[in-house]
Amino acid sequence: MKLRDFPPDLTPHLLPxxxxxxxxxxxxxxxxxxxSELLYTCPACRGLFLLVDKQEARLKERPGAFWRRxxxxxxxxxxxxxxxxxxxxxxxxxxxxxxxxVYLGEGHTPEVAACPAxxxxxxxxxxxxxxxxxxSASFKDxxxxxxxxxxxxxxxxxxxxxxxxxxxxxxxxxxxAALYAAYxxxxxxxxxxxxxGKVTPQQLAQPLGAGARxxxxxxxxxxxxxxxxxxxxxxxxxxxxxxxxxRIRGQESYxxxxxxxxxxxxxxxxxxxxxxxxxxxxxxxQGFLRLHDLGIIDTLPRVVxxxxxxxxxxxxxxxxxxxxxxxxxxxxxxxxxQAAMIGNPVSMPRVIRLAEEYTRRxxxxxxxxxxxxxxxxMDSMLLANRHGHIACTQGGESLAGFRAAxxxxxxxxxxxxxxxxxxxxxxxxxxxxxxxDNTFPPEFEVTPKPEFQNHPRLLxxxxxxxxxxxxxxxxxxxHLLGLTPKGAARP
Length: 491
Ligand SMILES: *Cc1c(COP(=O)(O)O)cnc(C)c1O
Ligand SMILES: [Zn+2]
What we know:
Among the domains are: about 110-135 and about 250-450, Rossmann fold (3-Layer(aba) Sandwich), CATH 3.40.50.1100; about 140-245, Rossmann fold (3-Layer(aba) Sandwich). It is about 35% helix and about 15% strand. The chain contains 17 helices and 13 strands. The protein has helices spanning about 10-15, 65-75, 90, 115-120, 140-155, 170-185, 200-210, 220-235, 245-250, 255-260, 280-295, 315-320, 350-360, 375-385, 395-405, 430-435, 465-480; strands at about 20-25, 30-35, 50-55, 110-115, 125-130, 165-170, 190-195, 215, 240, 270-275, 300-310, 365-370, 415-420. The radius of gyration is 24 Å and the shape is globular. Pyridoxal-5'-phosphate binds next to helix 11. Pyridoxal-5'-phosphate (PLP) binds near residues 138, 274 and 275.
């Protein structure tokens, strides 16, 4: 829609100017730092940062209804910088000029309702929010759009020359980082550090294709993370891990979109999300809390975190009664939810704080973390796929967690779910193949159910004669599928 066709009272607000005053605030000691330097942890105490806008109170001068209307109309605007997560510019990073924003088609992913048969099988209605429909096929693009837009802004405004962006990854972060860095061309080079053999071939192909330097080390993600941190301590690099608080900002858009899709009425909703490094659940809680602060939503939805029994430190923490909770990292075991296979989540301090604030406002059970088995994850993914959904193993984990929460009586009678399908099915297709072929190594503890297994069937023509061959194959297929000849009486 053309600018002149919008309601005149909104026109001055549609194309926002940088009016915020953002800074890094240390979660531990409260010290604040300017954003013109590449900082990830507090130089004084090594605590994690949250990014805050010192001027956020100015947004409260307008009622929630103003913001709802502005964001809804902004969806109609054909300005690339505002087509993605920066549709919610004032809430993401209101310090970056529109001209520095990088947009690769991320965000505004569809919420697809479970078909009636699936809702019936699960026991109540729900939707999958398909974050696998982002450009690099996972939700990580939301955060990268914010982090790389900020980096783009910084490189230009501080004359940094060429920067090296680096991250450790369970696969999807590196795919997203490499893609956005490649788009910025000469300004940003990227290097990614992966645990050898612990990312899928599809995920490995992505940063290779985007031209990143791909480095592999033995071990798991947690080992890569330590190396990247050692690098960031001693060298000039831009760190694109979840410690990078710009990513959390971008990922908050997931919560904003759910609010918008549900016309800002979130009573009776459960937002279900798989938890690995805990950046996503951090962003989702924070996103809803900020909408609540600004009066954009009245009711906070329930947040249900899900972890596999093979990588469940966050579940173990919340299982303990309040007051007796102590966070202890765990050794992970092989998991089909490989992108969430993390024993020492970086964002845990953020989660602890935010869950406290969330439950203070919305009640004790408004944040819950459930645990599911590897078997349940695989079976739930395949059940979803069998009903027309593109859930990956982590999306299957969301569904398994939703079912576990229903079973445990954690949800209200009419409560519905919005399940995060965090990546595209095809990224983790090797696990489907292992299920179909029954080749899971024993440590995964997955036994295929025959009703979900599927194999291609190769047909051999009985003859080489070109015309006869076609007829023969058609006959074979008709026989296999039990087709009724035309003109025959209906059975
Ligand atoms: C990164 C990732 C997760 C885990 O998210 P965290 O923010 O690390 O908790 C889950 N699913 C997929 C597909 C991912 O790429
Ligand atoms: Zn500090």
